[in-house]
Amino acid sequence: MRRRAGGGPGLPRLLLWLALCALCALCRQDGGAGAACSPRCRHGGLCLGNATCLCSKGYEGERCQHATCYPKCKNGGECLRPGKCRCPPGYGGRYCHKVSCEGGCQNGGECISVKRVVKCLCASGWTGSRCQEAICPQGCRNNGACVAPGICSCPAGWVGGACHLAVCKRPCQHGGKCIAPNLCRCRLPYSGLQCTKKRKE
């Protein structure tokens, strides 16, 4: 049985061969890949007959000079090579999609980004750039240090929620009041370290 004119498996091969020949002719006309494109096509791009570049996978631009990242680099990141982003400070991850606070956020703080400004959102009772400082609303007096929300660490000789109470190892007598470590304020007519001495009339 004869095949119909124009049919047969040889036609697709012929068309493919003609297309390849045309492309090769263009390359020869340009003197090879990149020869007729000025500047030359970069990153393996092929210069076509109309002085435009056919870029290899992962690159784009008039001369294939720009790498492409998919997904695109986020938060102002720069694509260095296909699939590789350089992230600005405060961001990380393959596509700069993760927020990263330098040093981390302490004491339950959360690293967030507000209008591309990266900072720690602190839990209640904490403050500081990394939520490292406790807040004592009552204050810590007499050189006390706030070590946890509402909790002061007092130096020797002082106690109380705000380190405001002095400690006298020997109690003040006769209604005297401890006003500093081991220092009593005595009521008349008493005096002395523990208010034990009575003045003679």
From TrEMBL:
<feature type="disulfide bond">
    <location>
        <begin position="168"/>
        <end position="178"/>
    </location>
</feature>
<dbReference type="Pfam" id="PF00008">
    <property type="entry name" value="EGF"/>
</dbReference>
<dbReference type="GO" id="GO:0038092">
    <property type="term" value="P:nodal signaling pathway"/>
</dbReference>
<dbReference type="GO" id="GO:0005576">
    <property type="term" value="C:extracellular region"/>
</dbReference>
<protein>
    <submittedName>
        <fullName>VWDE protein</fullName>
    </submittedName>
</protein>
<dbReference type="GO" id="GO:0001568">
    <property type="term" value="P:blood vessel development"/>
</dbReference>
<feature type="domain" description="EGF-like">
    <location>
        <begin position="164"/>
        <end position="196"/>
    </location>
</feature>
<dbReference type="InterPro" id="IPR000742">
    <property type="entry name" value="EGF"/>
</dbReference>
<feature type="domain" description="EGF-like">
    <location>
        <begin position="33"/>
        <end position="65"/>
    </location>
</feature>
<dbReference type="GO" id="GO:0009986">
    <property type="term" value="C:cell surface"/>
</dbReference>
<feature type="signal peptide">
    <location>
        <begin position="1"/>
        <end position="27"/>
    </location>
</feature>
<feature type="disulfide bond">
    <location>
        <begin position="186"/>
        <end position="195"/>
    </location>
</feature>
<dbReference type="GO" id="GO:0009952">
    <property type="term" value="P:anterior/posterior pattern specification"/>
</dbReference>
<keyword id="KW-1015">Disulfide bond</keyword>
<feature type="disulfide bond">
    <location>
        <begin position="55"/>
        <end position="64"/>
    </location>
</feature>
<dbReference type="GO" id="GO:0038100">
    <property type="term" value="F:nodal binding"/>
</dbReference>
<dbReference type="GO" id="GO:0007368">
    <property type="term" value="P:determination of left/right symmetry"/>
</dbReference>
<keyword id="KW-0677">Repeat</keyword>
<dbReference type="Pfam" id="PF12661">
    <property type="entry name" value="hEGF"/>
</dbReference>
<dbReference type="GO" id="GO:0007507">
    <property type="term" value="P:heart development"/>
</dbReference>
<keyword id="KW-0732">Signal</keyword>
<keyword id="KW-0245">EGF-like domain</keyword>
<dbReference type="InterPro" id="IPR013032">
    <property type="entry name" value="EGF-like_CS"/>
</dbReference>
<dbReference type="InterPro" id="IPR050969">
    <property type="entry name" value="Dev_Signal_Modulators"/>
</dbReference>
<feature type="disulfide bond">
    <location>
        <begin position="101"/>
        <end position="111"/>
    </location>
</feature>
<feature type="domain" description="EGF-like">
    <location>
        <begin position="97"/>
        <end position="132"/>
    </location>
</feature>
<feature type="disulfide bond">
    <location>
        <begin position="37"/>
        <end position="47"/>
    </location>
</feature>
<feature type="disulfide bond">
    <location>
        <begin position="122"/>
        <end position="131"/>
    </location>
</feature>
<dbReference type="GO" id="GO:0070697">
    <property type="term" value="F:activin receptor binding"/>
</dbReference>
